[in-house]
Every structure is written in C-alpha cells, then in structure tokens.
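User: I'll paste a sequence; please echo it back and then give the predicted structure.

Assistant: Echoing your sequence first, then the prediction.
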Amino acid sequence: MACLGFCGEWFLSTCSSKLIAVHTKEPREPFVFDCSRAEKRIKTAKDVNGSDASEETGSDTVLAFAVSSSGKLVAITDDTKRLILFQCEPSWLCISIRWVVRRCTSLAFSQAEDELLVADKSGDVYSFSVVEPEKDGELKMGHLSMLLAVTISADDQYIITADRDEKIRVSRRRSPYSIQSYCLGHHQFVSTLEIPTSHPHWLLSGSGDGTVKLWEFESGRKLQSWDLGQLEDDLCSDAAKGNNAAVFRICSSPGGRDVAVLCDGLMNIYMFTLERTSDEKLRFHSKLHFLHRPMDIGFDTKGRLWVLLDSSDVPLQVHTFRKNSWECDTENDDLRRVTEILRTQWSTTDNFTSVTNHFEHLYKVSFDNVSVYLQKKQQRIEEHQLKRTKAQKPKCNKKSKKEPDEVLTRPST
C-alpha cells in the first residue's frame, strides 16, 4: 500500500516495505529505510508455547505511519509487528525498534511528543514512550471491535478512537476508562479521523457509508454531514455491489481552511472549506478529477495539495489554490525533484501496486432471517392445506369386474 505525508519540508512516502523521505527545498540526500532489512524479532520459547525459538514472520509491508506536530519525529509500523521511531531533524536517525503485540492500523503522537499511541486490529490501544525509546508499550485502553483510526486532541486532553462498529469514542487521555462522549451517526465502519488545526474542538470523520461528518467531539454533537455519493456521477465497483465508496483519507491544510477527501476506488478528490461563522460550516468547494487512480493525498506546509497516483508516468501531482480554484502545477521544481527520486526507488520495489479496495473485508454482511423464516412457514402452510384437501375428497368405489353374460338356451320341445 502506497501512502504519502509530510514531516516539515520532507516529503514522505511508503511503498511496500520502504519509507522514502525527500527534502523538497534543499538538495539533501534522500532517506530510505527498508523494513525487510531491519532487525528481526527472535521469539523466545515462552512466546511460542514451549517450542523452539524462531523469528517473527510477516511481509515487512508498512501498515501505518505518523508524524509529530513539530515535524521532527516519524513512526512507522509494519506487518512484522515492528514499531520504528525516527528523528528527521537535524538529520535522519533511527532511534529505536520495538515490537507491538498485534498488527497495527493507526498511530498518533501526543502534542507534547512524549507519547506514541498505537491502535491494533484487536481493538486495543498501546502507549509507547518517546522519552524512553527502548521501553515496552503499555496497554492504554480497548474496544470490543477492530480499531481503524486513533488521534489525540490539540490540548492533549482526549484520545479519540474509531472502530469497525461505527463508533467514535472520546476518552480522557490521563484516565482512558473515563469516557467523555461518543460521536454516533455513521452506519458503517469509521475509517479515518482528522482534527483541523484552526478548529481544535472539531472533528472530521469518514466512513464506509460514504459520508463525511463534522463533530464537536467533547459533547459528541454532530454539526454537519455530507453524503459524497450525491457528488459522484459515476458508480464505482463498491456502489455496483450495493456499498457506498468508503472514505479513505481526510486531510486539512495547515491553516485549517481547506479540507480534501479521498474515497476508496474513485477517480475524484472532493475539496471542502471550513467556516466557523457560516451555518454550513463544512462547505463543498469543488471536485478534482484524475485520469489515474489517486492512492493518497496530503497538504504540505504551504497548503498545496499533493496527490499520489497509480501511474509510473505521472506518479505525483501538486495542486495550488489560486483565484478561488484548485489548479494543477505542471512546472514545479519541488515536484520534479521528488518524482525523480521516487521513480528510482519504486523501480526496485516489486509490490508497487494500488489496492483498489482497502476496506472490502470490513463491510458487514446482513442476514434477513425473518424473511427466510416467513417464506418457509408459508411453504409449510401450503403443503399442509394441500394434504387436507386431498384427504377430504370422497373415496371412489372400485369398479367391480364384469361377469360374463349368461347363455340362454331354448327349451327343447
């Protein structure tokens, strides 16, 4: 799975087992970390229930990454259950490699950058110290369902988690057993969360039901909801199957005014604006259409939107907001430099392929047992009535065999 992000002036991209960092302003040497060449965890006999020690197995594919608010720290986790912490300024340095209990789905740094939260597929959130980079993680909180996203409020007071069971939970960070609120209203799994920098008490959420919702998360109050299916002309593969296109990514610009939304499997990106004074706080602005499938999106420090595309010819595009419209920058030195380096790294990666549906296995299958029961009941009633009708018909007497006619003889004279 290929993703992108920004760590200050560093452009970040994950592709298969690699983390690639390219500086967009200075001709600095790119940083490349390959998880397949990283340290392997040796299982002890205790870990494998008394069997011989063995290495942890996995595909080494990067599953998630996060950037600290200052842009100085980066963390990634992979399919082999590594949790790797990097320092990117003043130079790139691998600080530590630790191990998580289960494969992770989302990471988040605290604003103070002293804690790294890790959400996993079992529904648990573990806390890893940044100050003590060799310390093992501690269980922080848990859900009864798979977690898909985790984030921390701008004041470090709340942990916000989203799961497969349509719930968004707002918990107090210092006492996670104390739940502040729930943000309820999605009808499918909640796939992504975003807190706009200019609106620290608002929360944007995206879901498998094809909607983007705006919340006041401390109270759990819903402010607005957008059904993206109403903005889409063409049916995607999910829609053809009866599912809405799941929201894959929501990102906001550094100023918090612009919001970009990417749906899984669609060729468009939806652009919104956030306005505190307007009754319609989340306002739809425009739709960007692409010839190649967008795989991920992200804003840089200047508020430009970078789009990672499923194309070896044009893997990246940059869009800038000018005169109330988003325009594609074809002549851009930053873009040219990053693209050249990415092509070099991707040429050595066998698994640079887009995933057309990241969430197909998360949709719940509904069973209408009542309809099946009523249908079978009606069938039994009809069969019973048919049997009764046959039993009530009068029995026909069997036709007796016809005896031969008697031969009349004439009396003799």
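Residues 48-54, 234-242 have pLDDT under 50 and may be disordered. Residues 3-41+58-362 form a domain with the Methylamine Dehydrogenase; Chain H fold (CATH 2.130.10.10).
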